[in-house]
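The protein record filed below.
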Amino acid sequence: MSSVLITGASGMVGMYLTSSLLQKKHRVFGVDTRKNDYIGTDANYTFVQSEMTDKDAITAMIASNKIDTVVHLAFSVDNDIDPYVTDAEIKKSKICDKFIYDAAEKNGVKNFILLSTTQIYGIQKGREPVRETAPEKGSSNYVDLKSASEKVMQKAFKKSDTIPVIARVAPLYTAEYTQNLRDKVYDYKDDVGYIYKDGEYGFSFCCLFNLIDFINGIINIPTGRYEGVYNVADSRMITAKEILDYERDHHRIGAVIQRNPGVGISLNKSKAKTDYRYFDPGTTFSNWNIDNTRAKRIAPFRWTLANTK
């Protein structure tokens, strides 16, 4: 079994990943600013409460425990920071970048998995699926944070035995956590859902369990080089109609109105820069189709909105 260090271990992704790894009898080391419910429940789980900018604490965890894989979830939205990404989060992430990659390389970590975002691609022209080689046009504080982490990571491990894996993850959802889905079909100002035409247009998302399967796949690969960038997203887009139907079935949405594209919703460019979840309805019919072909070599991506429990 492997020894896995999870940063941001008390966030949504970290908690689900911890559960999955402990079930598989891996040794799990968690670090976060907040405690979590796994502390003291399993002999294979060790937790350290620490700021991710604490070089001594983080470095000691990597150096003292023969870590095979680091899963770097800290400084990720949908995990343990607010969707409003400020200059403070960007600064903290850069401080961590300066030492965590170096510590992993010096202490023989086999894999280093960085949670990044498909928002790095921004809006792409044309209807071709967005692959890992697509231009990086995203513009927001969160994109800046993750793009900087990616670049530092790739440079740090360029001539290293540590294998760098960048997981560019589409907005996440579970059966209960559907905030990212709702943001594409809901006007919070008027407190109403909206749809264009029949709602057959769609967006790429990622079921959290597909991400967990992908991370497990990397941890369990015995040999070979598989470094690089992976798009981690569901194999098919989710339509606006499917989102609205799902939320209504779970009694989480009320009235839904039909609108003409580009009409009825005010835009806020300042909010778009800082809020990870901010959605410009004027981009509704842009290309949101994220291609996950490369990642499917690692995991099956069997989870969808329909079978997520």
